[in-house]
Amino acid sequence: MAPIAVGDSIPDGTLAWFDENDQLQQVSIHSLAAGKKVILFGVRAFTPTCSMQHVPGFITSAEELKSKGVDEILLVSVNDPFVMKAWAKTYPENKHEVSC
Predict the structure, then answer these.
(1) For 17-32, how does the pLDDT look when each residue is reduced to its tens digit (9 = 90+)?
(2) pLDDT of residue 59
């Protein structure tokens, strides 16, 4: 499979996460990105580099990226939604911005 380039359609898939009511939800990647300009980045929860550099870097740069036309910054992970829920709690200042 060739790498995904700017402007390409990404393969669809289903993502799971916990909403603000602690209910497990599922959504397709295509429905999240439909009609939007998105940045999609992948991580592994609780790894030092992702925890201390990758996620904080996107949080810090979010407003700048949005000012350049980015509608959503989507984080996906190989981890299950239970691990992602616990990891999101380590970013309390961005409780609603970081919903994993």
Answers:
(1) 888 898 999 999 999 8
(2) 87
Q: Compute the distance between CA of residue 61 and CA of residue 42 in angstroms, rounded to an integer.
A: 16
Q: And the tokens for 83?
A: 């691990």
Which of the residues in the chain have pLDDT under 50? 95-100
User: Is CATH 3.40.30.10 the classification given to domain 37-100?
Assistant: yes
Nearest CA to 86 out of 29, 35, 17, 3 is that of 17
- At residue 50, the 3 state secondary structure works out as helix
Residue boundaries of the structural domains of the chain? 37-100
Which one from 15, 43, 50, 55 is the annotated catalytic residue? 50
d(CA 57, CA 54): 5
Catalytic status, residue 50: yes
Tokens 């994993």 found at: 100
